[in-house]
């Protein structure tokens, strides 16, 4: 079906001032990408022929963006010397819009509304116009009759109007090519045309999309909420534009630093948005605001920022460690069911960890913190723990992980230097920490052995191959015999203490700029190569091959320096490919489980890197594991 799109982009954005004194509303950045570009990306699967965009306010900026955007060849601009209104804009573009069915999608709306479903409703009902509506009391003003047709537009319908229910228009609608004929020349409102068309006997229908995600970024507060919601959807707590070097900032929860902002010296940020043109002075503390060139706009907090814990229910922590009033903020959950909260009184900040009563690793985390701390491995300080309530207080390491740090502007020298510091920690874990293993008899039962390795490959089959890709594998399939051989091989390698999830999200960058290790409660006795490939072949951040090679050499040199002649580099190299196969199958299983079972769909964005690694490794090992290679090829070919 031939289909065009129209995105209104001419408005003044008055409710967003002073932000829109500098940036037109359609170009407001959402984690590095203009909101209008995010709108257009939603239509890529529909194969839209042409994209009409009207311009007026700051038209030069929108024109410049359009010329450089990925959609430039399809965009047709309609400049308005005078703003023509929601109807006049469509009439002005009728030369394009009158050729086919077209969709209108406001440029300031972020949603996951099912556009194909809206199109299907429009075509199947034979409508002239089909409006996407929903329950949203703040904006509800579209009165519908018992057949879902608009009968009046306004907050309160007069008694004479047969109105049965009031809905809010989402700013998204489908129109037949005849619709512009109901619009007068010049300035007009599309709302009037809906009613005129309906009164003339044309079918103007609606589709109720209540329950869909929908955000109107029409005010600074709504814009900030949209940014923070998008962070949460992507499983992030901090966004730092790739042009910004993040070693000059202490970035707390819900920090968004867009490209074009600048910090002179160092600054501390939390729940803050830095927009292009913003200059933050050395030593500044920015909290709960949007900062732009010459302005700061407060962002009010709401109760949801606190999560599901209150200080009143944790008076022990409050009274013991805070002298005055302290705030509680949920700062993350990651892939587990644990929850972490920041307790802060403005001067002091600690992290509260809450676990379930059945969390098997609570005691291990407490014990391992002391074990690793004693051996000078850089882990957070344990302040207090309560065995009964299964809670613990830790030193606050901030919110910049290695994963986040790597997203900022970082030259090759600094990046490799940081990775060498991280590998120094790994060498500590694998050598000095291992010397004390006999002091803790619990490690005798915490071995990463054949049974655990086979659990990982079954997990990969159940949660990823079957659960995510829909590929069924019979228990008699020869790939399981290969899994057995792989597990036995990895189990035969030399063992030491390993972290078992040594990747960039489990390395925090402290306020001193140095890396610190977290999430080590799953540590076991296992092959050190498993940890090394977890970092050097991390799906969260892909290293260049030559960089990876240098870092591998660095690790082995440091192991030899620390462990002496007992470390055989060639023998160790031979462990890496089998460990990589194991690790990436485990990671893919985890991404499948977390996305499907835990509702954390953002983990799926790491699948392409993990699957690419596994494909390359399975190819290298195809003579030894031919059926695994065939399975991985199928997984790569299955969407």
Short description:
With 639 residues, the chain is an alpha/beta fold. The protein is 34% helix and 21% strand. Helix 11 (412-430) packs parallel to helix 15, helix 14 (528-536) crosses helix 16 and helix 16 packs antiparallel against helix 17.
Keywords:
639 residues; alpha/beta; Spore Coat Polysaccharide Biosynthesis Protein SpsA, Chain A; Phosphorylase Kinase, domain 1; 9-stranded mixed beta sheet; 18 helices
Structure description:
- This protein is of the alpha/beta class and 639 residues long.
- The chain folds into four domains: 3-216, Spore Coat Polysaccharide Biosynthesis Protein SpsA, Chain A; 220-301, no CATH class; 304-395, Phosphorylase Kinase, domain 1, CATH 3.30.200; 407-637, Aminoglycoside 3'-phosphotransferase, Chain: A, domain 2 (Alpha-Beta Complex).
- Helices cover 34% and strands 21% of the residues.
- The protein contains 18 helices and 30 strands.
- The strands form eight sheets. Strands 1, 4, 5, 6, 8, 9, 10, 11 and 12 form a nine-stranded mixed sheet that branches. Strands 14, 15, 16, 18, 20 and 21 form a six-stranded mixed sheet that branches.
- Strand 4, helix 2 and strand 5 form a beta-alpha-beta unit.
- Helix 12 crosses helix 16.
- The chain is globular and about 90 Å long.
- Residues 303-313 have low confidence and may be disordered.
